[in-house]
Amino acid sequence: MLIKNTLIPTLLCALILPATATAHKDDYLDETFVYQTMEEGVLSLEYRSRYFDRSDDREIDSYWNNAIFAEYGLTEKTMMEVRSAWGTPESDSQFAGGFAQLRHRFGEEGEYFIDPAIAIEYEAERENDKLNQAISGMLILSKDIGDFNMTMNYARSWALDNGKDPDDQKSFGIRYPRHGIRWSLEYKDLGKSKRYVLPAVQLPLADTVSLKLGVGKGVNDESPRYLVAALLEVEFGEDDD
Q1: Which residues contact 91 (CB under 8 A, 6 or more apart)?
Q2: How many CA atoms lie within 13 A of 116 on its CB side?
Q3: I need a labelling partner for 190 at 20 to 30 A (CA). Which of 32, 73, 122, 207 fits?
Q4: What confidence tens digit (pLDDT) does each residue in 103-124 have?
Q5: What SS3 class is residue 3?
Q6: Which residues pair with 80 in a beta bridge?
Q7: Residues 121, 168: Cα–Cα separation, whole Å
């Protein structure tokens, strides 16, 4: 019950705390990664809670998934991120997996017509009560048009513990404006059981604290009918943006 009520206090925070601060160009609510990396020496901690409704084909039951993230800027253009998550269709308390990612951007934002970044990731993800391990390479393409940001992620994943063919994953996001209260829309294609759209809003609660809230919808029968997500982020260190 405690896990299922995590959205309530975050919603109350959004109503009580002022939304006047700015925030750096952080990733989208559901792990669509942007070009901009963390400033060198800056640490970000995040907690995310998501509810996935059952799929239309009833092959996957509804469940809650919760995750803790840590991001750290290694240099001005390179950062690392780790995540640990729990909550699966089998049990809300079951370990669901995690990842460790190294991300690098090329040049400064706006230096290219489309800003490129790359990432290398180790991931362990539970599927059908088995924890599958994989290594992924990712291309991140980002474009700013005024206060709009458009981001595309394309990843190819190679399984480490079985003979499966490489897996392709794609996501696309658009967000407005650059600072303050921001609105976004993500499309995720992470496999036939994870295809959905997720509109969201980001609320800056303080100079280094922000809250993201979203309600999404599956786009095929194998995906969740709908999902609800909330993410709370706190930064530590000097961020020049």
Answers
A1: none
A2: 6
A3: 73
A4: 999 999 899 999 999 999 999 9
A5: helix
A6: 72, 102
A7: 14
CA dist 135 and 141 (Å) reads: 20
Q: Which backbone phi and psi does 62 adopt, to 5 degrees?
A: -70, 150
The rounded distance, in Å, linking the Cα atoms of 108 and 92 is: 41
Structural contact between residues 207 and 50, judged by C-beta atoms closer than 8 angstroms: no
Cβ atoms within 10 Å, residue 36: 22
Residue 207: pLDDT over 80 = yes
37 touches 117 (CB < 8 A): yes
Place of tokens 């992620």: 153
What span, in angstroms and rounded, lies between the C-alpha atoms of 136 and 80? 14
* Phi, psi at 56, each rounded to 5°: -65, -30
The one-letter amino acid code at 106 reads: F
The pair phi, psi for residue 29, each rounded to 5°, is -55, -40
pLDDT value for 236:
93
* HSE value, Cβ hemisphere, 13 Å, CA-based, for 177: 7
Residue 237, phi-psi category: left (phi > 0), alpha (psi -120 to 50), beta (remainder):
left
Q: Give the pLDDT band (50/70/90) at residue 179.
A: confident
**Contact 82/101 with Cβ under 8 angstroms?**
yes
